[in-house]
Amino acid sequence: MGDSIVKKESEYKDFYHKLREKIDNWAKDGRLQKKTGKWTDPFVQYLLVLPDLAHLMIKLLVDRQVAGQIKTYILVAMAYLLSPIDIIPDFIPVIGFVDDLIVLVTIMNKIINTLDVQLLEKIKYYWAGKDDVFVKVKEIVAVTNEYSSLIPKSIYNFMNKK
Predict the structure, then answer these.
(1) Domain residue ranges in the chain
(2) Cβ neighbours of residue 150 closer than 8 Å, sequence gap 6 or more
(3) Rounded Cα gap, residues 16 and 6, in angstroms
(4) Which alpha helices (H) appear in 30-132, and where do they start and end?
(5) What is the C-alpha to C-alpha distance for residues 97 and 120, in angstroms, rounded to an integer?
(6) Are 88 and 144 in contact (CB under 8 A)?
(7) Distances (CA, A) of 47 to 4, 35, 37, 52
(8) pTM given for the model
(9) What is residue 87's predicted lDDT score, i.e. its pLDDT?
(10) Considering only CA atoms, which of 53, 42, 44, 40 is closest in space to residue 23?
(11) Please, which pLDDT band fits residue 1 given cuts at 50, 70 and 90?
């Protein structure tokens, strides 16, 4: 039984690394930028934070000491992430996950801004990502605010270019 868990974890890591490599190649080749414009460049690397945010939110959701209001925010974010109906359809390569990222980051930013010291410590404890979660969330919020007016036009361009 223990061996199957180890095997599943290693398969997950292999899948994650393959996905990361694929996204890195997309960014290096500039294929996405050719269709959508330069605004997508920062989002390509930020999309790799999406699984880390989802993991963090699930950990907070099952923690009995996290307040009900925080869990409600998390449930809203997770419902959007899992919903087949999105603002930007997930079938659009890479860009399809930008709206998911924005929703999760917006909710996490709201949670972080509650300034509950015990909650902030839990966030640090559960965070599995590489960088500081607080810095990463603020970075993505800033980039989203900077590029938000370009997103609709770029989606239109992406859909019309072959």
Answers:
(1) 2-160
(2) 37, 39
(3) 15
(4) 31-36, 40-46, 50-62, 68-82, 98-112, 117-126
(5) 26
(6) no
(7) 29, 18, 17, 10
(8) 0.69
(9) 78
(10) 44
(11) very low
pLDDT(140) > 80: yes
Judging by beta carbons within 10 Å of its beta carbon (0-12, 13-18, 19+), is residue 161 exposed, middle or buried?
A: exposed
Please give the span between the terminal C-alpha atoms of the chain, in angstroms, as a whole number: 49
Instruction: Kindly compute the dihedral angle of the four CA atoms of residues 58, 131, 22, 144, in this order, to the nearest 10 degrees.
Output: 80
Structure token digits, residue 109: 């930013």
Q: Report how far residue 6's alpha carbon sits from residue 100's, in angstroms, rounded to the nearest whole number.
A: 29
Residue 60's alpha-carbon distances to 36, 53, 113, 114, 121, in angstroms, are 35, 11, 16, 14, 11
Can you tell me which residue has the tokens 């690394």? 17
| CB-count exposure of residue 150 (10 Å: 0-12, 13-18, 19+) | middle
Cβ atoms of residues 57 and 101 within 8 Å: no
Across 12-20, average pLDDT: 57
